Amino acid sequence: MWFWLSLTALIFWSGSDLFSKIGCQDSSDRYSHLKMVSAVGIVMGLHAGWQILFGGVALTGQVLLTYLPVSLLYILSMALGYFGLRFIELSISSPICNSSGAVAAILIFAFGGLAGTSAVELIAVALVCAGVVLLGAVESREDAEERKHRQELAGRTYPKTWLALAIPLMYCLLDALGTFADSRVLMVLDEDAANTAYELTFLITGLVCAIYVRLIKHEKFQLRKGLPRYLGALCETAGQYAYVYALADTEHAAPAAAIISSYCAATVVWGRVFLKEKLTWKHYACIALIVIGITALGFFDG
Questions:
Q1: Count of C-beta atoms within a 10 Å radius of residue 207
Q2: How many CB atoms lie within 10 A of CB 1?
Q3: The dihedral of CA 277, 280, 282, 288: what is its sign?
Q4: Count of beta carbons in the 10 Å neighbourhood of residue 157
Q5: What is the rounded distance in angstroms from the CA atom of residue 88 to the CA atom of residue 167?
Q6: CA dist 33 → 40, 274, 286 (Å)
Q7: What average pLDDT does the segment 155-163 reach?
Q8: Sign of the alpha-carbon torsion through 209, 212, 217, 220
Q9: Residue 177, burial from CB neighbour count under 10 angstroms (0-12, 13-18, 19+)
Q10: Whole-prediction pTM
């Protein structure tokens, strides 16, 4: 069962990347990222309600407050990620964002030392970091005409701006801080209660964003244009649910983590197939380094 749950998490989380990109890539919609946060908040809030009413999850105000810093780090990183999708190809953004596991590992090494850390884990972290640095170098040094040509083939061009790489890197750092904080807070909190607290915090954030967009900025939520956002929100929530249960099988946690952590590779495939994104061989070589490192980290982290 762990194998199918792992594949389910991989497919849904890569699907979340794809639909979020579709829902947030319109640069003319200044609030698309806030609308995406609202969509995710509503769906997660519904799931949290189900868990409390029918799943037997006991949630208290103390749990909400204890997990609040972790929730806010995750939510802020996702909101930034949604905003950044209008500036860069999904095939480049997703691997950078998913490098947060390597940054979290560096934080753990820094505060906990290298005791118990294998050489393979250190090599995996080095591969991810090298891949991200090289990907940034390839992206920044790419010939302007070559860049314009390959983006025109996909039917969408992006302005060359520092935000294109800065935002995924900020997502990576914030998500890594959230993961690091998570590893500490979950020493004292039940995982189901913590996850439900996160979903309820996301619901509150989503409602605040919806009020701001609709009542203050007088922007409309159009159902047809907003559908990809809700599909992305459903995929995000479903992937998270499958992830928790896949890793609950402790005997197979290592291979499950490895499968799930490589979902950015599937995202790159979806970007190529559905969004017609075209990258150079240099881009794909850097992405391959990142995916190999992330997968290895997922395996040995389990």
A1: 15
A2: 10
A3: positive
A4: 12
A5: 10
A6: 11, 21, 27
A7: 85
A8: positive
A9: buried
A10: 0.90
